[in-house]
User: Which sequence fits this backbone?
């Protein structure tokens, strides 16, 4: 069946090759496809270029585990939990190259990628030093109608996009519960050559038909859909569950030191064989129930 | 209602005796957000979020607030632990689509005109840096988070309101290591010559309020917070201060009612304190 | 109160000046702001330029009544009810000038208008003769990154946008019932300098807060909001009511002849003093109840 | 499953004795939409909509259908009186946002690759005109509706499937009065030289099926419908026909099952008949 896109985490992660440019959904502590991120680390993927608008803990874990060597995007931070220090150290040591973009430039580059346009323009960035740092992808161009110049942002087509959502059917039609229309879901899966979606729940298509206005991604763009309950943990998946503060704080503490960083990666990423083992390692049902009780969850 | 009259109205009530520095930052910022404005906050923005909530409860009930650029006119029960998560946009009138739709409003010249910016470095001409400390983009001394929206907001005609809870010579510098948010660039007409409208308006720190001298576009002391001296501000600033004509005014202190709202209603968990004294 | 945008139809229509460029929501027989269209005709507005993606009966009425002298957009047709013959005659007689655009060009021009960009590019139109007909607004430009040329579509900022929707609050926050996300609502009100919204019902803001995911337009862009039940009639406002086939057919028949055209305009547009009188003229409750029974209505 | 095998599979059942011309147009078009395709219809598209519905019920259950570019995989109870109104996208899996989101898929090279086009004029190189009849854009003899999506679909790499229920010398012309949808332009490599991929694939009319000769890109008779002669087609065509090598095949007639589905299930109200014999 063409429209059966169900896959295991391992199968889905195998769509990502060493060296790929990978667009990763995430807004600081929000809704990152963490189960796939952990699987990529477990599988020892190398030299990934990560595209993110506002990336948090998944990028820090990937930096710590050495699976990435570029970041293309807006910012990397865990908001209230502070800077991503393993990412930061990687950049400062020259192990990770940054191609920094403003938010409209990320959107323009991915938007052009999705629409098969060579570029989209923005009026952002003008006056900043970012344009000059990235002449291959950002170019000040004249307005053909005689107005002020704009910045042409070259199309970016990631090899893979990875997103997490509330539910999907087996054909890969994806629904979000109303809380927000996440920017990454709005564009990453449309720009990328391959698309991996993890969801809290795979449901019958009939369930989606009850609320077609909540479907945000048609199945025909999706290559693999994986059911992973709490698949965004320790980031949030409101209104189902909140971000895990304790886990973020534990990571911040561990990341201060190379040894504790490795211990953390072993304990929470490399050793758990699957999502169930991971959830037990991070506190099991007690923790998950508490996260479900977070305001709005 | 203009910013001036809003500020005057705020000063009407009895002044609190035990206000804290985070509270005077909040009231100073709040005075600049008035009915008819549309405000939008980014992440880790406890001071601006508290200011928007205070303005809406006092002088600017019709300040439109797009929480985290997502939730329109929300009713959070208090400032939550994140200013970029769903508890902040509780009970919204609208969830704005983020990739495409938000930028229709943000890039248009008529809406969301005022924008609060926090940055690691700010220089004498209001340029900001959140990219890196050092001299080499590809081998920085310190990698900062990155610009995201700042890299746009400085260029698209917004009025920028900087807040800096840690006024010191490392955060207020002669020249930023990297311009990741366009202020007045080299000062004077340089910004205007590039076709950029808007620009930095105000800097609210833990010590003072600063604006920009209209011709040179150089940062200028507007008022010192009660108990702070001009010398203390100068010592904490990485370049020579420009002073206003005449005596340096003292920042209007928070009123009893403002302090009550901030402490008891808006931010009973003290999230705003997290931003203070980090560096 | 700044946020009280409620107005009468007459007040709302007064936001449109003679000669204005007016962006009009409408997809063939769908969801046009017909009450405002009739009010503009009643008020004798002149020389309007109408912007439409796929406009139907409102443009034919405006052409018949002589209130418009330009059409800027994609197409004018009443789908199953055929061509808009009064519009067509106006163009053939030289009374109405057409600036024809493809769909992506309409979107690009309005999108650039909304975003204060001088232009947005499209790959549509290449090879057609439309580019050459509109050199002021369509220009083939080089890709600064060395790829194929694209068509720069100049920003279009209408003076006024007029849309109809299911409900709004007095602040002008607008909600649609799920049936589709109409293209015009997605961009016209964001590109235009002034915005008129008519709705089936003005509700308390509390009602909108129950379903924030259905709000499609924030009040701060809206200048006037008018409660007009059946305000889209004779076009559809699914799922509330369908298009009125009998009325479309009556118009097609009347439009064949100058005298019957004038009689139609008098009877249904010029003589009814308000929406209630209009609804009585077009069949009253019996007709409206039948339209509410249309499939999905 | 390729188009070839799909067509073969369709020809397997017993042939109907009383098929109508609208039905052979529907079955001829349906054969070209197969599992894995994504199809999307525009307004007044009763023949294509019937073809998509038929394909989904027979050889292509996994044909994705985006009704009116709005409703994904809908289940309308029958072809309604409008192919651009909500009854068509009844019971959809998704309502696609129209201004922004639809075009992310349509402009991308991988999805919605096949597009059905109806136009007032079509010429020997597959260029179409829906703009005006005459010689002067600003003073046309007949103003046609306009191009909307056609003006894009011809330029962005789509495979175009024309349908024309009124094959006559006014609709199939030597040269269109105005190119509002790019086909093969002047023929040969002209389209390709402009960097355009895709292009016209097929023309299904009330008399015949035509394709495009691969080198010259000239329209070529592929098959005549049963009972129609080559001479009749030539007389109805405004330019000299290009014939296939050897005998001209006869179009596969609809099967008993196809006719039953069209008449009893898909379009019991006969909406498809509205398109026939208008001109």
Assistant:
């Amino acid at each position: 069946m063409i429209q059966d896109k169900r896959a295991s985490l391992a199968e889905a992660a195998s769509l990502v090759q060493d060296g790929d440019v990978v667009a990763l959904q995430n807004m600081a502590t929000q809704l990152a496809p963490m189960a796939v991120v952990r699987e990529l680390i477990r599988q020892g993927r190398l030299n990934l270029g990560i595209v993110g608008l506002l990336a948090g803990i998944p990028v820090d874990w990937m930096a710590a585990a050495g699976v990435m060597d570029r970041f293309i995007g807006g910012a990397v931070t865990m908001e209230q939990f502070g800077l991503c220090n393993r990412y930061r150290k990687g950049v400062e040591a020259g192990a990770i190259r940054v191609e920094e973009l403003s938010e409209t430039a990320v959107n323009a580059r991915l938007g052009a990628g999705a629409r098969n346009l060579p570029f989209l323009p923005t009026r952002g960035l003008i006056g900043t030093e970012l344009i000059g740092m990235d002449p291959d992808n950002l170019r000040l161009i004249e307005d053909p109608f005689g107005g002020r110049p704009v910045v042409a942002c070259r199309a970016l087509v990631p090899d893979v996009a990875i997103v997490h959502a509330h539910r999907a059917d087996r054909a890969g039609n994806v629904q979000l519960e109303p809380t927000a229309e996440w920017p990454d879901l709005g564009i990453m899966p449309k720009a990328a050559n391959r698309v991996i979606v993890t969801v809290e729940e795979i449901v019958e298509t009939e369930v989606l038909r009850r609320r077609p206005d909540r479907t945000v991604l048609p199945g025909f763009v999706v290559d693999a859909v994986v059911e992973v309950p709490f698949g965004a943990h320790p980031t949030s998946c409101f209104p189902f569950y909140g971000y895990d503060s304790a886990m973020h704080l534990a990571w911040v503490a561990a990341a201060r030191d190379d040894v504790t960083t490795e211990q953390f990666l072993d304990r929470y990423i490399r050793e758990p064989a699957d999502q169930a083992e991971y959830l037990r390692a991070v506190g099991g049902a007690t923790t998950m129930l508490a996260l479900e009780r977070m305001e709005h969850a | 209602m203009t910013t001036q009259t809003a500020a005057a109205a705020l000063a009407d009530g009895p002044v609190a005796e035990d206000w804290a520095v985070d509270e005077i930052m909040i009231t100073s910022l709040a005075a600049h957000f008035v009915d008819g404005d549309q405000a939008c906050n980014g992440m880790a923005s406890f001071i601006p979020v508290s200011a928007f909530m205070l303005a809406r409860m006092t002088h600017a009930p019709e300040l439109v607030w797009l929480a985290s650029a997502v939730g329109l006119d929300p009713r959070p029960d208090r400032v939550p632990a994140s200013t970029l998560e769903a508890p902040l946009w509780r009970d919204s009138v609208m969830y704005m689509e983020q990739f495409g739709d938000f930028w229709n409003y943000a890039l248009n010249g008529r809406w969301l005109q005022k924008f609060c910016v926090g940055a690691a470095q700010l220089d004498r001409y209001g340029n900001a840096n959140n990219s890196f400390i050092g001299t080499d983009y590809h081998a920085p001394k310190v990698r900062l988070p990155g610009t995201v929206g700042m890299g746009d907001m400085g260029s698209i005609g917004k009025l920028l309101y900087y807040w800096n809870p840690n006024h010191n010579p490392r955060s207020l510098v002669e020249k930023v290591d990297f311009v990741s948010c366009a202020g007045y660039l080299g000062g004077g007409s340089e910004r205007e010559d590039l076709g950029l409208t808007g620009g930095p308006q105000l800097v609210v720190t833990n010590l003072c309020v600063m604006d920009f001298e209209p011709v040179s576009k150089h940062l200028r002391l507007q008022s010192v917070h009660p108990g702070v001296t001009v010398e203390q501000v100068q010592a904490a600033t990485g370049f020579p201060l420009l002073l206003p004509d005449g005596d340096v005014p003292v920042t209007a202190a928070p009123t009893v009612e403002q302090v009550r709202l901030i402490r008891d209603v808006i931010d009973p968990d003290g999230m705003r304190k997290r931003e203070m004294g980090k560096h």
